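Input chain follows. Return structure tokens only.
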Amino acid sequence: ASLATGPRQNNGVFYEIRTYDIKPSKMKEFVEMVNKYFHLRTAHSELVGFWSAELGAMNKVVHVWKYDNFAHRTAVRHKLASDKDWQGKFISPVLPLIEKQHNEVAYLVPWCQLGKPPKEGGVYEWVTFQMKPGGPALWGNAFRAAISAHINTGYTKLIGVFHTEYGLLNTVHVIWWNESPDQRAAGRHSAHEDARVVAAVRDSVRFLESQQNVLLIPLQCSPLK
């Protein structure tokens, strides 16, 4: 299998990645509020996915939004600020539940289209790579080869590869899907014994500063389930 080839990012489309740390005693309440009222937010713009961390982090949620361009995002933010239902029913009661917020702007890499899982009910792995300064001109080909090698094993499904534009630069977020954590573990063991994967990863890690893996569970409101 090979990677799907998407159009280069010359049409303005970008993705905002929002990560919230929730107070440990308030996680259940936060998820309940999201499930009850998040339709008010998705009425304004497209939600790609909304997940809570299961392994690799605790009391953390990640959600991804798609915008046509920066003017689109600005217009959406203005509308949200004047939406009394959204502000009163969700924002006001939820803000005290949140310890920290972080956002990034990222583009899909030109060689990847946003994918979907073959069925609902699986788990997502969010892998963040901090690459050496220099950008894709330095490490892009090696990184793509490593991702492609993992796909070619057939043990996992690629959902998307995002490269940051605002936030910590030279960061790449990769989202994978598996039917279960056990399937993911078995596939990883097989990949580590695959000479093609080993060679590609060995070449790519020359440009790697750090890596973090988080296992995510989709929330009820998430389009990616």
